[in-house]
Amino acid sequence: MKARVTAHKDFTIARIDDRVYSAFLEHLGRAVYTGIYEPDHPTADADGMRGDVAQLVRDLNIPYVRYPGGNFVSAYNWEDGVGPREDRPTRLDLAWHTSDSNAVGVHEFIAWCDTVNTKPMLAINLGSRGLDEARNFVEYVNGPTGSYWGNLRAKHGHPEPFNVNLWCLGNEMDGPWQVGHKTAEEYGRLANEVAKTLRAFDKKLELIVCGSSNSDMKTYPEWERIVLEHTYENVDHISLHMYFANRARNTANYLALNHKLDTYISTVESTIKLVKANKRSKHDVYISFDEWNVWYHSNAQDRAILDGAEGWPHAPRLLEDIYNFEDVLQVGCILNTFIRKSNVVKIACIAQLVNVIAPIMTDPKGAAWRQTTYYPYYFASIFGRGTALNLSVSCPGYAADVADDVPFIDIAGVHDEAEGTVTFFAVNRHGTDALPVEIGLEGFGAAKVIDQQVMTHAMLEAVNTADNQTNVVPVKGADAMVSGGTVKVSLPPYSYQMIRVKVG
Ligand code: AHR
Asked: So what CATH class is 3-9+389-503?
């Protein structure tokens, strides 16, 4: 068994939008409280933000962080989170049956974004609220002083507009679990009115309308068509979400799931084209895949917390998936899909960033550490910027639940013209056999391997914990080399790797 790949400099998919390496942070569990914010923590800064967490986030070079939800946003009053902390109300969060002190709100979040070199992407409550609250929120965040909302923001310590350019018009409005769930017709009409109104405030805002919560929804993909028929000319992106699970403990099926992701994206891409044609429009709408990740390890623990919930705990341990080595492979495959779909996916957010189904974990008053999945996300975010190459791949495959012929290799290639590098991200889905790979480089000139990072482990279940933070980490590889214009490398069974080649 071997894989033959060809990468041609001129055979490209698209320029990858850096924003596909974005993330998501919700007022949920310990994402915010004892996640990014813990005023008593030894590393906390003057704003109460944890310095150890900030550094791990900074290292990821995340373009945008979506906030504050998620299901949480659909009953959130943004006004509760502004003004003097001591005056802020504690509210019951109906999405996760918890209470929220509102110690962190939009000011603190945006200040934190500055400290970790990222930008805010804000979600608007279109569940329990409507057009007026949406426009007030946007005017509060971006309006000039001299206006009511701008003056209020100045009174709260920030005279300069925050100039947030990315706005989500609600969250998962197709989901019956959502506070204020709507039909596609109801939501499409409301979202269009909100979009028009926000555009009247500022034409340059980038607006994201809700698509399906996942491709198993009964309303998918008609939801997308109807919502876009209402909103097409006034929005820039349609949001999709998908979570991955290996409940049946079948690795082969699990690692094939990005084929389902691929089909989901292609179907919505076609739906966008259909609506564009119906409308005889020149406008383009793209996909914001603003929630994706592995999510299942914590399901039983969450049910126990939520079903047995008495009272309204503040920052309980919800959705604290502990990721294993197998999930490294899955996250690698997902990120490869976004690179290959970079013609239409312009934003994607790993969901979430800290503690809640996240690459970064913390102990209250204690350590912050990298989960196993931190690494494929890190490598893609740092080295996956540039132009996505349309690779030709020939490799044997296997039959899985979601597809008949899933190649054992999953590979994406990125040409960074400015740096003069080509970077490959590759996963070997074979559990017992190493996979020799030859990547023919065409049109790049002289080539030399400058880095090879390999992740493999004897146990798919291996995890990183506070006490053993480096159980699953990348190691520098030494076997990748270029010979006669061909990169030659062998992928160990069940492995992830990044190979960087200097070209030209
Ligand atoms: O990320 C966890 C939850 O998953 C979000 O709150 C919701 O949008 C999705 O269903």
From this structure: mainly beta
Going from N- to C-terminal start, the domains of the chain cover: 3-9+389-503, 17-383
Q: Which residue has its alpha carbon closest to ligand 1 atom 5?
A: 70
Catalytic option among 224, 291, 320, 326: 291
What burial class does residue 303 get, using C-beta atoms within 10 Å of its C-beta: 0-12 exposed, 13-18 middle, 19+ buried? Answer: exposed
Rounded Cα distance, 368 and 114, in Å: 20
Catalytic residue list contains 291: yes
Which amino acids bring their CB within 6 angstroms of ligand 1?
26, 69-71, 171-172, 213, 241, 291, 351-352
User: How many whole angstroms from 351 Cα to the centroid of ligand 1?
Assistant: 8
Q: Which CATH class is domain 17-383?
A: alpha beta
Contact 388, 412 (CB under 8 A): yes
Phi, psi of 153 (to 5 degrees): -60, -45
pLDDT in tens, the chain (504 residues): 999 999 999 999 999 999 999 999 999 999 999 999 999 999 999 999 999 999 999 999 999 999 999 999 999 999 999 999 999 999 999 999 999 999 999 999 999 999 999 999 999 999 999 999 999 999 999 999 999 999 999 999 999 999 999 999 999 999 999 999 999 999 999 999 999 999 999 999 999 999 999 999 999 999 999 999 999 999 999 999 999 999 999 999 999 999 999 999 999 999 999 999 999 999 999 999 999 999 999 999 998 888 776 789 999 999 999 999 999 999 999 999 999 999 999 999 999 999 999 999 999 999 999 999 999 999 999 999 999 999 999 999 999 999 999 999 999 999 999 999 999 999 999 999 999 999 999 999 999 999 999 999 999 999 999 999 999 999 999 999 999 999 999 999 999 999 999 999
- Tell the residue number behind the tokens 């030894």, with chain if given: 42
Q: What are the tokens at 473?
A: 């980490």
Residue 24 CA: nearest ligand 1 atom is: 1
CA 66 to centroid of ligand 1, rounded, Å? 12
